[in-house]
Amino acid sequence: MKSRKLGSSGLxxxxxxxxxxxxSLPNAPTKEENIKLLRSAYENGITFFDTAQxxxxxxxxxxxxxxxxxxxxxxxxxxxxxxxxxxxxxxxxPENIKATLEASLKKLKTDYIDLFYQHRTDxxxxxxxxxxxxxxxxxxxxxxxxxxSEANAETIRKAHAIVPVTALQSEYSMFYREPENxxxxxxxxxxxxxxxxxxxxxxxxxxxINASTEFDKTDSRSFSPRFxxxxxxxxxxxxxxxxxxAEDKNATPAQIALxxxxxxxxxxxxIPGTSKLHRLLENMGSVxxxxxxxxxxxxxxxLATMKIVGERYPAQLQQKIGK
Length: 323
Ligand SMILES: NC(=O)c1ccc[n+]([C@@H]2O[C@H](COP(=O)([O-])OP(=O)(O)OC[C@H]3O[C@@H](n4cnc5c(N)ncnc54)[C@H](OP(=O)(O)O)[C@@H]3O)[C@@H](O)[C@H]2O)c1
What we know:
Layout: E1 3-5, E2 12-14, E3 18-19, H1 31-43, E4 48-50, H2 58-66, E5 74-79, H3 94-107, E6 113-118, H4 127-139, E7 143-149, H5 153-162, E8 165-171, H6 183-190, E9 193-197, H7 229-249, H8 253-264, H9 277-284, H10 293-304, H11 315-321
Parallel strand pairs: 3-4, 4-5, 5-6, 6-7, 7-8, 8-9
Antiparallel strand pairs: 1-2
Helix pairs in contact: 1-2, 4-5, 5-6, 7-8
Bound molecules: NADP nicotinamide-adenine-dinucleotide phosphate (NAP).
């Protein structure tokens, strides 16, 4: 597996990480199967694992699975919700950050967090105060790197002025290209790494979802506006593009979606999630696919003709988490 560095931080990780959230969703595989999968990910070359306090029992699962090779992996987790629950709203009070850290260390069975992200910007706590708190935790050796998630350019700049930000984690894929407006150039200028979440568009870009797909009511896509039937139908044109590119490159749609992201900037490290080993290996294949400048221009031109419809989150959640 090739490696990449997150900006100028020197933090070197596998070019593709593993988004672990899905392993703790309803209908996820058993704990034993999950542990086996996470260990196989490491054995196959993945060294970057993404979790969060807000992902239920996910930190405990990741901690147990990765304990035998803790020193060899980079674990990223996130703070910033009341009691770690999105629906209770944001809380980046220094006391909550410190309490979350202690809880995360315990669940992850470790005495340091490699990369500690603020999950969402908290409008009630100045980002300088958040960054100052992280700086203190870094001085204590409990946190190695600071990250932000879904923060805007101004917040990134303010935080970075207090303590270096190693990575921004925000949604980015052919399905959601908002970071191209201002974020990616800001990260490039400040030499901060970019970790795109939902890089497969929550599965949409893999060609396995269409207008007739039925989602279980516990699946967040069942209440995500962009996954309603009408929007899936309207956005199918994007899937058709990815499928046809995959045919041309003798690759799979998921591999094209990921190789496109990797081709955007050398400081980008996507974190696709899957509960299945064969898909993990398939996704890892994207690192060996290279898209030529001509192919990238062709994709760029095709994407420019498409208008992706549907909000990412239901209004009630959007209100709670600010974005
Ligand atoms: N910072 C944030 O606010 C935030 C928000 C969302 C996510 N994240 C992080 O980003 C990670 C990934 O995001 P995500 O899970 O939302 O979306 P994703 O990685 O874009 O897509 C995951 C979905 O795609 C399916 N899938 C994966 N590989 C596939 C393949 N090769 N063929 C067909 N289907 C495939 C998975 O199903 P199977 O399990 O059935 O394979 C799953 O339903 C999360 O685990 C989490 O760590 C962060």
